Every structure is written in structure tokens, then in C-alpha cells.
Amino acid sequence: MPKTYVLDTNILIHSPDSLENFQENNIVLPIAVLEELDGIKNAEGEKGANARSAIRKLEGYRKTGNMIEGVVLSGGGILRLEINCNHVELPESFPEHKTDHRILKVCKDLQDKGENPILVTKDILLRVKAQILSIPAEDYTTEQVPEEWIQYTGRTEVYVYEEAFKELKRKGVALCDTYILDQEGNNKIPELAINEFVLLRADQSVKKTQLGRFDGQKIVPLNYKKARPYGVTPRNAGQYFLQEALMEDAEKVPLVIVKGMAGTAKTFYAIAVGLEKTLNSTRAEYRKILITRPNVQFDADIGFLPGSEQDKISPLIRPVIDNLEQLIDSNEEERYQDEKELRGKIDEIFDRGIVVAEAMNFIRGRSFVRTYLIIDEAQNMTPKQVKGIITRAGKGTKVILLGDPNQIDTAFLDERTNGLCYASEKMKGSNLCYQVTLTAQECERSSLALDAISRL
Q: What is the largest distance, in Å, between two alpha-carbon atoms of the chain?
């Protein structure tokens, strides 16, 4: 039997295509939702763009019939509009002028008519209010990925039979020569995704380890284990995996997804490899390093800030400059003795166009060729934004998504709905993508940072 879903405005803003994702069920849009879309449609940035996209979709359905009576959706369900239901009474603590409460009135009216509606909203507090009124409510789950503890990490640890352990560098290790222990303690052949990184332990001496990658047929050794991009040396297994992913040619691996807590050197290593490939490579693999990062207020505020585009975004790329300071002058004792000289070296990199920082809302619709594209803080992107960025990649471009799923600042996103984790799950097993999740134990920023990650 078809269900009836009442959609909040934030569902259409989060995913303008959501109307097609409810299969053969009925969708009800309160008039209050249309009014909110009308108020948002002229907004700058992703929010306004998504509102306009949703409105265009509604216009398409309007042309097919009477939306008050209901029109057929492409997914097979029925979409209809519902009036404000002013006659429905809510408790006095629910002011009538609020849009959320007008939506609740629609749900209550449908309940009274025996339709058993389900409110779909990304607003947690609205779901709480719905529960107070005994109205079933849920999040939009179509773009949700599994819970964090079972999400793909791009790496695993396996035991290898002693004889096969010695053959990694010569002919690789077949999966039948490896095993993991199941819950009963029995040996079990691991199920690896293509390009998943592997820490191999010799089963007769678990202190003996090697690093490899599953190429779809067998576990092969890392190609860039001895590389030292821009003088940087890996300090742990995670950074060796990260280095492998970043150093591989863009033609072979055009997408790298890196998750990890603060201090695990995600941005630092990405910039180091970018400088190595742009400045020191004999093939001049990339024309430039382009760095961008989302910001929860960026779309709305950038136009009102004084100065050039570079002046406007400079506060948001300060972490990039901090990393460049360490890479440009590797001598920790003398690095900050002449601040003016250090700043001059960094300014030269930007002036020559080696490193370019741009606002994310300025790169929509563009195509990037032979570009080393770093998207920092990607956990603050929506799935649609991530798709839009990745599909901008042209020939010879490498896209690097960096972020910490535990530090999300964007409203209505969480560990299961952010663009970084969404891309990670959807690109799992792609032969064009390397992934790695850096652990808390691999924090290299400082002993304090490591201690704080484990304690706080």
C-alpha cells in the first residue's frame, strides 16, 4: 500500500531530485514549502541554485496536470499540493506564523483524514516537534551512507602465510594466501575492493609487516614507497598509503579521497605532492595547484567583503599558507627568523600561479585540464556539490577530496549525508579512485594534538 510523505523545504534544497526518489508513494507539499522556496530562489550560492532547480521541476509537473488534485511523478508516485489547513489547531506553544508549524498542521490534517502521513525533514528539532504531536517523522535517507563505523576506509589488515609473505615484491600475493580471523577465530579469506590498501602481517611473526595494494587480482607492492615528495618523508602506514595515492599519475588515478582527524597531515601531504609534481617533475604533470574549500557562510558573505577575490578568500585559505610555510622552508630552527622573507616566498608561489586559491562557488561550470585540484574540508559539501566538483575534472586533472567527517559545520549534514562520505562509498571499488582513512594514532601534528584526539 502506498505511503504518504510530507516534505519539508530543506529536502528540496538538499536534493532537488528528491521528488523522484520516493518510488510509487504519495508526496504532499504544503503551500508553506512553496513560499519558502520563493523566498530562497534569489539567494546566492548552492542554496539558491537548488531552490531554482526544485522550482523548475515543480513547473514541469505543473504542466502535466492539476497539482492540487495530484500529478504523476516519474518514479510512479503522486505529487500534490496541500493548503495551509488553518482550521487545524496545535498546542498554544506552537506559534501559527512559523513555517515549521504550518507544515505540522498539514500533517495533522492528513492524520485526521486517516492518511497516516510521514514527515520527511532534515531538521532534527522539527522531527522532535512532530513526535510531540504523535506524527511519524524521519530523515531523508536516499543519499545516506552506512554508519561511520562500517564505512569504507580504503585500507585493511591481513595475515599472510610465511611463504607467500616473501613473494610480495616479486610476484605479488594472491588472496588465497591471506586471511583474517572471523568472530569464531577461524581463518577467512578477506574480501577486498579494487585499489584497497593492505597492511600485511606474516602469520608466523606478526611483527614482520609489508604494505601493499589490491589491484583487483592480487596484492601488489607500493610503487612510491621510497618517494620523498618535496622532501617530505612518510611517518606511518597511513601516510605511505596517502603518498601512494597522491603520487600516482592522474591518468591512472584521477580521484583520491582522504578522510582523517585533524593533525594527520592530509592537507600538508596533498600540497607537498602537488608542489613536487608541479615544480620538480620533469614531465610538468600539472599546470597549477588549485585549492578550494567550502564554508558555511561563504556563498552568502563573499560578495560583501572588500577587496579582490584573493583578498576575500584569504581568511579561508590560511591553513594552506600555514602548510606552505613548513614546506617552503623545511629548516624548523630558522624558518621563522625572517618572517618577511618567508612571506615573500609564499607570495611568489601565488603570484606565479603555481598555487591558486578560488572560491568554490566561482568554479561551477568550469572544466579543469592538467590541474592538481585540492578540495579541503570536503565533509562540509553536499553529495550534489561533490558530484559537481568531480565531474569538472578534464584530461590530466587529479581531484583530491580531504576532510574529517567528525568536524561538520554545515546545517543538515552529518556523518552519513555529507559529500565526502557519500563520494567515498559510491566510488568504492572504482579503478580510477584511491582512498585512505588516516587513524587517530597517525596524528603527527604534535604530542598534544595526539593526546587531545584520544581524550576529548
A: 78
